[in-house]
């Protein structure tokens, strides 16, 4: 029997980021957490989840193994929040799968993924529901099934993907309540007024580092040092994505390029989640990181040769991974 103030949360996509936020949400009072796991289902069911975090310490068995599910329908209930931290490969089919767990009058979908345009399939599938859109800078990897290593990198911005058909106060309440869960979970985050700014800023970063580290199989610093042309090409690509954002009425400034280049040079060198996917021969998030900006750019008549070229080559490379994934049971 549900207690009146119980908050039912489904964590969908229990990889590195999903497991990290499952850990955060498991610390919030009144949250009843259900997790949807795929390849790590058996491991999580048997041993729970282990988080090895440079910020939060080491924790294991943080999830009640009774509520690990393989399909959203298995939960046989609808949720207050569904946190989507799966790879943004095929949003429309995920939205379809989630339908039995959604009650548009109460369920808020929370998207914590890289990319732009990620919300559209969920809005289409659940036109009467609320969406919170999130951009994370958490650095994490699942090192073995059910075991996630988190570095010191930890930040998240969240904001509404506003729904004009839902009362604004209700949408704000839903956002505030989710923010209070993150506060109780003791993670670093900010609520922002126009989350599309942060989504597009991050996609400028991901379009550059994820594509270039994947196509070269180099880390970021080795790529930048690989030839005198590497930095100018990276900058050109970033400027093209900013041009698209601006045409989409998302107010990014070209000064962002200097900030992102400085940021990468002042960090330890990194590889990207896309490079990790390519090494594991898993489908890569090419559409939300490059495809959506490239399509928007073309539609709006912009000259985006660098972005288009990388998009076309990565789409080709992705075909094999998508085919292999489709053949798996
Ligand atoms: N890892 C990082 O440091 C960062 C990642 N991000 C972003 O966070 C999101 C999650 O990435 P991350 O956690 O690294 O990825 P992982 O590969 O670690 O985990 C993805 C999880 O989602 C599951 N999954 C993938 N596709 C689907 C699907 N269609 N339906 C259901 N489950 C699915 C995977 O299951 P299975 O194992 O069965 O494939 C896996 O459990 C991505 O958008 C990524 O770009 C953002 C910032 C940093
Ligand atoms: C971890 C980080 C920030 C590195 O670029 C990322 O977003 C990714 O790899 O996709």
Automatic annotation (TrEMBL):
It holds the Pfam family ApbA_C. One of its GO terms (molecular function) is 2-dehydropantoate 2-reductase activity. Its EC number is 1.1.1.169. Residues 194-316 form the Ketopantoate reductase C-terminal domain. It catalyses: (R)-pantoate + NADP(+) = 2-dehydropantoate + NADPH + H(+). GO terms for cellular component: cytoplasm. The keyword Transmembrane helix applies. Gene3D superfamilies: N-(1-d-carboxylethyl)-l-norvaline Dehydrogenase, domain 2, NAD(P)-binding Rossmann-like Domain. GO terms for biological process: pantothenate biosynthetic process. Residues 10-162 form the Ketopantoate reductase N-terminal domain. The keyword DNA repair does not apply. SUPFAM superfamilies: 6-phosphogluconate dehydrogenase C-terminal domain-like, NAD(P)-binding Rossmann-fold domains. Coiled coil: none annotated. The chain crosses the membrane at residues 7-25. Keywords: Membrane, NADP, Oxidoreductase, Transmembrane, Transmembrane helix. InterPro entries: 6-PGluconate_DH-like_C_sf (IPR008927), 6PGD_dom2 (IPR013328), ApbA (IPR003710), KPA_reductase (IPR013752), KPR-Related (IPR051402), KPR_N (IPR013332), NAD(P)-bd_dom_sf (IPR036291). PANTHER family: PROBABLE 2-DEHYDROPANTOATE 2-REDUCTASE (PTHR21708), REDUCTASE FAMILY PROTEIN, PUTATIVE (AFU_ORTHOLOGUE AFUA_2G14497)-RELATED (PTHR21708:SF40). Belongs to the ketopantoate reductase family. Catalyzes the NADPH-dependent reduction of ketopantoate into pantoic acid. This is 2-dehydropantoate 2-reductase. It comes from Xylaria flabelliformis.
């Amino acid at each position: 029997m549900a207690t009146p103030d119980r908050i039912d949360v489904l964590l969908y996509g229990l990889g590195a980021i999903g497991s990290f936020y499952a850990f955060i949400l498991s610390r919030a009072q009144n949250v009843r957490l259900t997790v949807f796991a795929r390849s790590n289902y058996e491991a999580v069911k048997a041993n729970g989840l282990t988080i090895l975090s440079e910020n939060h310490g080491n924790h294991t068995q943080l999830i009640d193994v009774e509520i690990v599910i393989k399909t959203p329908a298995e939960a046989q209930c609808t949720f207050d929040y569904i946190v989507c931290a799966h790879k943004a490969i095929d949003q429309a089919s995920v939205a379809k799968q989630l339908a039995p767990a959604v009650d548009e009058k109460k369920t808020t979908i929370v998207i914590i993924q890289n990319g732009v345009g990620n919300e559209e399939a969920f809005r289409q599938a659940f036109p009467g529901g609320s969406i919170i859109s999130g951009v994370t800078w958490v650095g994490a990897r699942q090192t073995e099934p059910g075991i996630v290593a988190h570095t010191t990198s930890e930040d998240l911005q969240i904001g509404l993907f506003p729904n004009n058909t839902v009362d604004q106060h209700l949408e704000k309440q839903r956002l505030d309540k989710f923010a209070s869960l993150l506060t109780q979970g003791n993670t670093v985050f900010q609520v922002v007024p126009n989350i599309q700014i942060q989504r597009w800023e991050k996609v400028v970063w991901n379009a550059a580092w994820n594509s270039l580290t994947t196509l070269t199989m180099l880390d970021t610093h080795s790529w930048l040092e690989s030839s005198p042309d590497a930095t100018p090409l990276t900058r050109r690509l970033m400027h093209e994505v900013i041009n698209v954002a601006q045409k989409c009425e998302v107010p990014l400034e070209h000064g962002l390029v200097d900030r992102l280049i400085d940021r990468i040079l002042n960090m330890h060198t990194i590889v990207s989640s896309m490079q990790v996917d390519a090494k594991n021969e898993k489908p890569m998030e090419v559409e939300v990181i490059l495809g959506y900006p490239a399509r928007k750019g073309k539609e709006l008549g912009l000259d985006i040769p660098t972005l288009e070229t990388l998009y076309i080559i990565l789409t080709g490379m992705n075909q094999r991974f998508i085919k292999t994934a489709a053949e798996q049971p």
